[in-house]
Amino acid sequence: MRILVTGGVGFIGSHLCEKLISEGHEILCLDNFFTGSKRNISHLMDYDSFELIRYDVTKPYYFEVDQIYNLACPASPVHYQRDPIKTINTCVIGAINALELNKKILQASTSEVYGDPQEHPQHESYWGNVNPIGIRSCYDEGKRCAETLFMDYHRQRGVDIRIARIFNTYGPRMAKDDGRVVSNFIIQALNNEDITIYGNGTQTRCFQYIDDLIEGLIILMKSNITDPVNIGNEKEYRIIELASLIIHLTDSKSKIIHKELPEDDPLRRCPDISIMKGLGWEPKIKLKEGLLKTIDYFEKS
Ligand code: NAD
Ligand code: UDP
What we know:
The protein is built from nine helices and 13 strands. It has helices spanning 11-22, 77-80, 84-99, 137-157, 181-190, 210-222, 239-250, 274-278, 287-300; strands at residues 2-6, 26-31, 50-54, 67-70, 104-110, 161-166, 169-170, 195-198, 204-206, 208-209, 228-231, 236-238, 256-259. A seven-stranded parallel beta sheet has the order 3-2-1-4-5-6-11, sandwiched between helices. A two-stranded parallel sheet has the order 7-10. A two-stranded parallel ribbon has the order 8-13. Helix 3 (84-99) runs parallel beside helix 4 (137-157) and helix 7 crosses helix 9. The structure holds nicotinamide-adenine-dinucleotide and uridine-5'-diphosphate.
């Protein structure tokens, strides 16, 4: 099959391209390098089945492909808040341009569509608690609007859609300057620098290792579920617990310091993954095992 991956040189996209190539598919990767790096896909460049085009998905395009994974979008708060107008354009216009190809298409949506949730764990039927005018809104509302577009193209034009609500994912090839909690803490710990906990550290997240996510995305694409589906790990950790674990695993001399909690930072997040379990998927990699692989990556890079 010929598969288009937008955002394919990013953290998740590069792992997805690698896996799809190993399954014998031909990959066309579109990316504007806003946050992605050529280094992530340098090992794929020698494959005849891999083609990379520098392209901004907010501009219309047409390619002959069988399937699309629409991943293009900065994903971490520091990057999506750098140019919020661009972020919402990428979410919304990027979704329209991809949907206009009228091919089977999977959208990389996010747990951020639940905002600061009032229900735990978050089931797909929960509509969320999102601030429409805050500093995270360009991403949260952009991704919510993209879901709306996917559902409307499906209902109105019969486009074959999949919507993956991805929860916090970590692993090798996270960008060093991403500002996300796992990469920040590992880099700080390896350099024996202070570990920066925002707020008191009692806010929670569930951390999914990249290989589990990639398997989940491909299983969801093969399914016939057109409604949104959560993909994440159910094990919930306080951020302060994550900091202690990373200090322990890196045998670091770092101390924990506290900084201000960013505006609208969700206090609890945990997915209900019963739909994915019904498809025979569940995460396999425990946090300690995944962190050790990620620490190894950052040590070598
Ligand atoms: P990333 O920043 O590493 O990758 C995003 C890629 O999209 C980058 O290569 C970037 O250059 C590219 N891109 C951004 N804007 C573009 C544009 N206008 N045109 C073309 N390319 C563009 O982020 P990631 O973690 O790999 O996330 C990939 C997708 O998964 C995103 O859509 C994100 O919203 C979603 N997601 C990620 C997580 C996570 O924990 N990493 C969680 C939920 C959802
Ligand atoms: N966080 C932190 N220190 C950091 C980076 C992040 O305490 O150096 C916190 C952040 O405030 C949030 C959680 O860790 O509560 C997860 O942040 P991340 O940016 O990784 O993901 P998101 O907030 O998008 O889930």
